[in-house]
Amino acid sequence: MKLYRVMKVAADGKPQVGTSGSMLGVRPTDPNNLNPNAVADVAAVDDTDLVKPGEGLSTSPNPHSRQPRRNQAVFEIETDDLDPVLKPNPDKPDHCLLEPSQPMSLEEYQRALADTRDLWQQVQ
């Protein structure tokens, strides 16, 4: 199965790694809730907190589900190429979480996502 995500493009044409909603990585929960409009992808706050199956990086099985903005592109990844520590979870018809296959620390999960960087290919 192929998954798609709109992300910022780095100078080498690959997705930028980071904790923004348009980067390769997840947004942890803000412990102080300073911005009530902030969106968190995982319940974890600190690097040692656990990220569990059922939460993770938002992707879509549909390459047209979101339109890229300036300095962004649609990237695709083949799920057969993923390390077994990550698994796709199609939780809605047009949405799929790329989640940990078992609980792991936020730091480990972010590293596992970053390790997929070279597997993502620009499609738009």
Between the first and last Cα atoms, what is the distance in angstroms? Answer: 18 Å
Question: In percent, how helical is the residue content?
Answer: under 10%
Overall SS class: mainly beta
Number of domains: 1
Order of helices and strands: EEEEEEEHE
Largest sheet, strands/sense/barrel: 3 strands, antiparallel
How much strand? 25-35%
General shape: globular
Going across the biggest sheet, name each strand in turn.
1-4-8
What's the count of strands? 8
The whole-angstrom Rg is: 14 Å
Protein name: Tse2 ADP-ribosyltransferase toxin domain-containing protein
InterPro entries: ADPRTs_Tse2
Pfam families: ADPRTs_Tse2 (PF18648)
Organism: Frigoriglobus tundricola
Would you mind describing this structure in some detail?
- This protein has 124 residues and is mainly beta.
- It has one domain (2-27, 40-122).
- It contains 1 helix and 8 strands.
- The chain has one helix spanning 106-114; strands spanning 2-8, 50-51, 57-59, 72-78, 86-92, 95-100, 104-105, 121-122.
- A 3-stranded antiparallel beta sheet has the order 1-4-8, with no helix packed on it.
- A hairpin with a 2-residue loop joins strand 5 and strand 6 (95-100).
- This is Tse2 ADP-ribosyltransferase toxin domain-containing protein.
- Residues 14-35, 50-70 are annotated as: Disordered.
- InterPro entries: ADPRTs_Tse2.
